[in-house]
Amino acid sequence: MRKLISFTTFCLLIAATWLTGQETVLVRPREIDDVLVNPGIGFMTFQRFNGDTLNAGSRWTEGFPIVYQDFDGDLTNEDHPATSLVYWRVYWRYIHPAPDSIDFAQFDRVFETAAARGQTVILRIAPYGGGDDKDVPDWYRELVGEEPELPRKWRTHPENPLYLEHFGGLIRALGARYDGHPDLEAVDVSLVGFWGEGSGSHEVDPHIWRQLVYCYLDGFKKSHLIFQPLNGDAPDPGLMVRGLPIAAYWPGGRNNGEGPRMRHLGWRLDCLGDMGFWREDRGDWCHMLDIYPQQIVTSGMKDAWKKAPVSLEICGTFRSWKNRQQYDEEVVKYVFDQALKWHISSFNAKSSPVPKEWQPLVDEWLKKMGYRFVLRKFTFPSAIRPHGQIAFATWWENKGVAPCYHPFPFAIRLKNSAHSEILLTDADIREWLPGDIVYDSEVYLPADMPEGTYDFAIAILDPRTREPNIRFAIEGRGADGWYSLGKIAVSRDAGHRGRDPNRVP
User: Fold this and answer.
1) Neighbours of 67 (CB within 10 A)
2) Do the domains 7-34+372-490 and 44-366 sit in the same CATH topology, yes or no?
3) pLDDT in tens, 142-170
4) In the chain, what is the straight-line distance between the N-terminal and C-terminal CA atoms, in Å?
């Protein structure tokens, strides 16, 4: 058995070939066990940003304009994991002050602050909440008047044409301005119910429901959409997608339609960890045992994770789990394991502290949440001609439970003291599902590539900055974020053909 070696002491297995006179470099990196902060995955801050003070006690705030805290430049979150995400949930009334006025400045500031703190934004516009200061906008209330006989957790009726005109119009306007924004991670589809969680969605006339959903589908064609079909009050959660171009698949081969017009939406739930929060009223009933496992299947969303993210929100807070519910580590681990089974990418803990005794469980959870790329093997030629082809072969393992949902480019860099060349590959990392990944391809050097010896490095890049933005679970990351794999010579004397990189001596 070959000995596995670290980047600091890696060996180059070299074999001369009579055909080309070239050599092949084979690298087997050493895996690391660190918690990695990567784009689009892991914990998120809630109504605040990296470096801000967390919520005190077991309570939290939501739905209001963000209160910006003084920032001293320290991105550390005390008793909370570092994050690449911020979730902002805001009530309609606070960002739409008049029928013809939208407070875009609030959104712009959130995106700018998130980017400065190394985060992207998940956004939900909740139509209303449960208190008088969480009603629909005052001007809208004046239009529709009081509505005394409404389903539970509704404050206005979505079948009123004014709702589609104004709330739906707001969503379309936000899409026109922010769809595809590089700092917008995803938009949380929100249409009815307190906090926009969808209570009573099945009671909306199907034709009206589809019109409301299309405000999101038409408005946000580039940004990811996530929605919440698992409220527990719908007799058939599959109704939420019926008649809409939203991909859904059920046991037995039934689906909601196929083809290029179908949209792949992610999904979320808002009470991860409910193992009996309402036992005094509902006995043994709870979300974790009686709603989520069943409705993930019956909603048609069981396999949605392959194309779009699963984002879960804590029920209560970690402090309420510990102090009120009196969960022990066994219960916490069960909840975390269920989330992994459902292919979680991100988690909203409501910016509440993690109990110190549960931190090891959280760390192990984070190592599996979303994607985690381990490079197992990489081969490339030791020498190449200018304008020549670098054929390479790779074996990766995604040790997470989900892919990356962004088409970030995988790149090779050749660099020495005089010249640097970044070569983009054709890899689509969105296809790198959990398990083994074999990716073999080639890139071409420019015809005017200067001769010399270069450091051969790899990285996955932010397409805007062309700087590395994903950390691999291996040793060898340089200060600039690139992973050096060895040396390659660029010489006109190199062989005309590249060695088959899959052939190991």
Assistant:
1) 9
2) no
3) 999 999 889 989 999 999 999 999 999 99
4) 14
Mean pLDDT of 245-253: 94
Number of H helices, E strands in the chain: 11, 17
- Ramachandran bin of 475, using left for φ above 0, alpha for ψ from -120 to 50, beta for the remaining angles: beta
CATH topology of domain 7-34+372-490: Immunoglobulin-like (2.60.40)
CA distance 250 to 177: 35
Which pLDDT score is estimated for 22?
Answer: 64
Range 44-366 classified under CATH 3.20.20: yes
Alpha-carbon gap, residue 283 to 300, rounded angstroms: 28
Q: H/E element holding 113?
A: helix 104-116
| Count of beta carbons in the 10 Å neighbourhood of residue 282 | 11
Cα–Cα distance measured from residue 56 to residue 79, given in angstroms and rounded to the nearest whole number: 12
Q: What's the one-letter identity of residue 145?
A: G
Question: Could you tell me the sign of the dihedral formed by the alpha carbons of 297, 223, 62, 172, in that order?
Answer: negative
The answer on pLDDT for 10 being more than 50 is no
d(CA 178, CA 184): 8
pLDDT at 62: 87
Query: In whole angstroms, how far apart are CA 30 and each of 13, 453, 474, 504?
Result: 16, 25, 6, 19
Which has the higher per-residue pLDDT, 147 or 56? 147
Return the sign of the alpha-carbon dihedral for residues 318, 321, 326, 328: negative
H-type alpha helices, 135-205: 138-144, 161-163, 169-178
CA distance 170 to 215: 9
Residue 298 DSSP code: H
Instruction: Provide the token pair at 310.
Output: 């699963």
**Checking phi first, is residue 16 left (phi over 0); if not, alpha (psi -120 to 50) or beta?**
beta
Distance of CA 167 to the CA centre of its chain: 26
Sheet holding 410-415, edge to edge: 383-384, 483-490, 452-460, 410-415, 420-424
Alpha carbon distance 264, 246 (integer Å): 6
Domain segments of the chain as ranges: 7-34+372-490, 44-366
* 453-468: pLDDT as tens digits: 999 999 999 999 999 9
Which H or E run includes 120?
A: strand 120-126
Closest CA to 265 of 240, 287, 290: 240
Contact 175, 219 (CB under 8 A): yes
**pLDDT score at 3:** 37
pTM (predicted TM-score)? 0.92
